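We modelled the chain as a single entity of 92 amino acids. Its sequence is:
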Amino acid sequence: MAAAFIQKYQSIYPTAVECLNRDLEACLTFYAFPKAHWKTIRTTNIIERLFNEVKKRSHKMAAAFRNEDSCLLMFYAVIRSLQFKNIPMPTK
């Protein structure tokens, strides 16, 4: 499937196809995990949600950030408050 994509778009988007070729193995790493984990591993929804929460809260509290430590403390509080989907991990 990747080969067909590369063949189709190589002449139109050579730089993007070169980048894909270089990182193709890393892009498909999620297939090495159980199928139930694929969607969670290959999407960035968790990361996007985290950054949106931090952005939303930091705008309201911009004056409270006196230094880097105060910013990190808020970031940690946001991470702790979010409910992430639990994925059971094998013990072996």
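As a brief sanity check on the tokenised model: The first helix runs from residue 2 to 9. DSSP finds five helices and no strands in the chain.
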